[in-house]
Amino acid sequence: MISVAFFNNKGGVGKTTLLCNVAAFASLHLGKKICVVDADPQCNATQYLFDEATLENIYGQDWYTINKFVRPITEAGALDEKILITKSPEFSVDVLCGSPDLALTEDFLAQDWSSARSGDIRGIKSNLFFAELLQRLAGYDYVFVDASPSLGAINRSVLLTCDFFVSPMSIDIFSLTAFKNISQWISEWWSDWLRGIRNVKDQSRLPALKYGRSRFLGYVTQQYLAKRDSAGERRGVKAYEAIRSQIDQVIIDSGLNQYISNEPFEIGTVPNLFSLIPMSQSANKPVFELRAPDGVVGAHFAKVKDAYGIFGEVTKEILERCNG
């Protein structure tokens, strides 16, 4: 099993849309067994993957969510041996649903991080909760994690145990700053973590769990306008391309490239798909699976076909990099 977090501490970059469509393409068209873990307390992935009736069942009938798995660590209890997942029929993926209550774990993990840095076993185990979660999902080909847009304790636990992370980004100056912040953040907590492990007096007490600093798989640019030239090829708008041309150098200057296993850094591009995105969200279906009953008319059909190619290329590149 390979685990990939979709993460950027800047919000509004199309992270959840990218993750859900990549997951669906990998399952529907590449035959992979996929689990989506919604680790964002905003629960946008869960909202996208399920219709309203299912959401009412999930949150109205005390359904199994990620918070059900995590909560025992705040009560000195054992984590569940079995995780109950929910199937998203339209996206053809299994889902560990999100929960707004997950946010309540943030302060607890932050406090336990302080003790973990000094070599306290309980603090180390608490911050490896995501490693235990992934261990229970070992039967999947890929686990895709929707991480929140923050540099907080939950995301630290996610990136401490996932194999890779992908950063979706919009083409603006703030996304460049986000890369610098992410690199500095990872560097600081990884140093703290290694010091904490060294400070454990009895190394035999360390949990037998897989952990390590996530490798940066690359970035996916999104949400810029594209025009076609006389040959029919997409052409980026100049203002956006000026910023885009700086991205790779920013990654190198920030040191984020030390965590990457592949070059070039860019995985692919998802141009603005306009009304197809809200249509996809309303239908709770992948963009490339939209049909006439979902509201597709006229020129929309060509854009749906384009979306199939766009998400297909990005998905294949992500999987290839994971296995490279």
TrEMBL record:
Top-level taxonomic group: Bacteria
Bilayer-crossing regions: none
Domain (AAA) ranges: 4-187
PANTHER family: P-LOOP CONTAINING NUCLEOSIDE TRIPHOSPHATE HYDROLASE, PARA FAMILY PROTEIN CT_582
Organism ancestry: Bacteria, Pseudomonadati, Pseudomonadota, Alphaproteobacteria, Acetobacterales
Protein name, entry field: ParA family protein
